[in-house]
Fold these 2 entries.
Entry 1:
Amino acid sequence: MEVRRIWTSTELNDYLQFPYTAQVFALQREITEMVSQKNRRETVYGITSISAARGNPQCLLGLNRGHWCIENRLHWVRDVTFDEDRSRVRRGKGAQLMASLRNLALSLLRMAGTRYIPSALRHCSRQDDSLVFRLIGVRL
């Protein structure tokens, strides 16, 4: 379980030598592990170019939380499910082609409404080719 708190300020803008600074924030996370009941607290600090008028604290919390969506929905799946880090394809355009094919597979499964990629891949591997062809829009 995680509780997040955020404090924002524009008071430091004139002191920071950082381009486009509109506000700074401190984000505190209090995390309780459900099984062990261990607690930990961490505080991170940030600078944003979003003005206080456009980005209130609730907006910044949402943006911060949504930032991990890309990591969790794409990069983690590619690293863990496709074991991309251990790929031995390195010559020519092979690595880029394989990454594109993995992204294509992920996109097709997401567009088909799949929530859990590993189980969807297992399901596709056990079916005849008609399911995979339907995912890419080919009618047999």
Entry 2:
Amino acid sequence: MKNNKLNALEAINQAQILTFYPIVFQAVIASKRLGILEFLNNNKGYHSVVEISQEISISEYGVKLLLDMLSKVNVVIRDEKDDFTIGLVGFFLINDKQTAINLDFVQDVCYKGAFHLTESIEKQKPIGLQELGSWETIYEGLLDLPSDVSKSWFNFDHFYSDAIFKDAMEIVLSSAPKKIMDIGGNTGKFALELCKHDQTIEITIVDLKNQLLTAEKRIDANNFSGRVTFFEQDMLSKDITLPQKNEIIWMSQFLDCFSEFQIEDILNNITKVMDKNTRVLIVETFWDNQKFDAAEHCLLGTSLYFTCIANGNSRMYSEKDFKAIISKTQLQITNQYTVGEYHTLLELKLKDTDE
């Protein structure tokens, strides 16, 4: 983590830029969705405002307005004739999958709700969620989100979860487990991958009702319904019951959806269905354990989404804070792995009785 010191001129310059960031973001969205960036990306060289306006059927006023702003943030480049070409930042906004997914997620899922961040922090509730629907948390309404919001949410979720499947599979299957419990299995993608990799393994997906409905459809469509069962359970419920005799308990990008105290309760609750040989595998994206500043920035931004839209009390945790939570439970960390570009996999077991 870098802690760059700024001089007074640099600091006030950055402060002034920050004041207009939300509007600049909307200028990026508009230029992308109106086709301006796509035109410049597909047509090399510099182009006049008149030409761009005619090609995409947007007024010269609108085109010039957006390009003037975007040239200041390197999305486009202006020459001495006031013609424009795609900049390197604009190139990645169009062509980089991760950047495009993040952009749509912030616009479609987060932007309106972010207006309520102050109140969300004060009340420790996702007040911004009211911009999408009348649920207590976003997880209750995933199947009822507007289509554009739903697409952006699932694209974001799957991009950061699917990437670790290949690396994680070897770790999961290293002990030749026959029964696995996937808590927070969401749409069933990981369970599906497990079935494909091992012809005998049995999986139980534990989640809320709506998520289980989606997962069951996916599993049935791939003809694995005989090996996957579905167990409805709200992990915040006072009376938690879970399937027993699982050799592995898997939780991928699940615990970051809860507060520190809730995580502690969940981990202690799963110990009730464990024995000394049970492996608990937790996958998280710790913001302080990233190779690139951009990844750290995105994860901290995701924490703001959790606060004002998802649930009001969780975040993307640092490795230090997460391990401190584990230390308060009946579990101990036995192994740690890096999986994919951004994720950490922690392997836990029951604490030794003499500790």
